[in-house]
Amino acid sequence: MIEIVRNYVNCQINGTLPAKVYEEFRNRMRYKKPGMVFSYVFKKGWSDGYVYLFTKKMQRFPAGLLFLAKRILEESNIEYKVTDLRVRPTTTGQPVSLSKVVLRDYQQDTLDKCLKHGSGIIKLPTGSGKTMIFTALLGQYVGLKRAVFVRKLDLMAQTIKCLKRDLGIEVGMIGGGVADIKELSVIMIPTAANVIGEKFVKYLGHFNDDEDDAIELSAQQKMLVKEYIENLDCFVIDECHCASCETMQMINKHCKKAFYRIGCSATPYREDKTDILIHAATGPRIIDITASEMIKRGFLVPPRVHFYKVPPVFHKKAPNDYQKVYTEYVVNNVWRNEKIVEVTQKLINNKERPIILVQRQEHGEILEKMLQKTGLIVRFIFGKTCLEERKYVLDQFEAGNIDVVIGSVILQEGIDIPCITAMVNASAGKSAGAYYQKIGRAIRPFESKTRAIVIDFIDDVKWLKQHSLKRIKVLKTEPLYELRIQE
Q1: What is the dihedral of CA 166, 170, 171, 174, to 10 degrees?
Q2: pLDDT class for 110, splitting at 50, 70, 90?
Q3: Domain definitions of the chain by residue range
Q4: Which of 38, 245, 269, 283 could form a cystine bridge with 64, CB 3.0-4.6 A?
Q5: Over 60: is that where the pLDDT of 38 sits?
């Protein structure tokens, strides 16, 4: 009989595992550390490049992987029992119901499963109302210390607004130089890392637009926030796929008393294959619904994706460096940029409400100038744009006073602007998760909106061509995504 002793953060195995089962634990509770293959220890053969979450000496693993441990033991026909040392926190007062909102059936089902399991990952497509679900969930835990962890300032402001509106309670804000702690607070992940003495490690999938919240808190504020985090009873990580594996471990380790742990994402998997760290912090998926299922039921609109073939450039050999290739063939590609301007003009003439997504600041600035020359009212917002200006620009766009908004990664995920009917993917990139998020900006339902338009490009140059083909492959996994290749 194997005993698994669980606390809030880890599980400890008491008993001797057979050699084969031990190897199963090791091999299924590991991940390749990004960049390790370039390290000195790897090149010398001192490391195989993996980080192991279970070791023979400690026989311990993150509590979120308990489901995986049970699966391994059951597959090996080994009897086990689980001893749970946690104490379920006691709520006080009546749960707070959502004001003037009725949950859809799948939202209510997800809420019920969250209440039953306590921890896990909510996988629902962009636009399906994940924020509404975790708002309803947090309203059930009155009297408990609760937090929502987010990565971006925009998402923090939007989340606070939704929580206040739908629960009718005061909500704290921790980030952007503010430490307003309430029973329920929204916390910037970089701020959390800073106050508990950890380094905020950016997720490589988000390049230079990861906001690290450079505004320092005072020593007194840091102490209070650290104490608050370490005594949380419940936390939600929104857009959990965006947190680097190191960041996920940091949140998991320092929330020492959190009984309830929920991760939310439309794409809770990772290009760097470190998905297991998301599970380690929150547990298994407790709901999994695709975008096509939501479209079929009328909760999202189907996208029509047009790919334009970018003519090859023959006058010289492509650079043997990805960043240089990206600069020459995407940022400074005259044909490509002129096609973006042409298509955007057509979209606006057809009464569409488009946004353009770029990866680099200089690309956004180039497109902004080109579009302004056509007489369109255009605004570009990016990582260094202050929160107040971003909010102003998006409000003006929703009001119809701005024709098109160009955005960097800050507009790629989490931001709720249902009036968007078209998205121009001016950047390249191979991340399936990031691509789903981009398309998600346009497929939210809105008045008289029956479909969305997505514009993309097939780049005929090394690296970028393979990335284009990978995005096409992503689209083919969703039956109700319509794909058109344009000459």
Answers
A1: 160
A2: very high
A3: 2-84, 105-289, 298-486
A4: 283
A5: yes
Residue 237 — very low, low, confident or very high, per pLDDT cuts 50/70/90?
Answer: very high
> What CATH class does 2-84 carry?
alpha beta
Say which CATH architecture domain 298-486 belongs to: 3-Layer(aba) Sandwich (3.40)
Q: What angle do CA 171, 268, 283 make, to 5 degrees?
A: 75
Query: Does 2-84 match 105-289 in CATH topology?
Result: no
Region 22-30 average pLDDT: 93
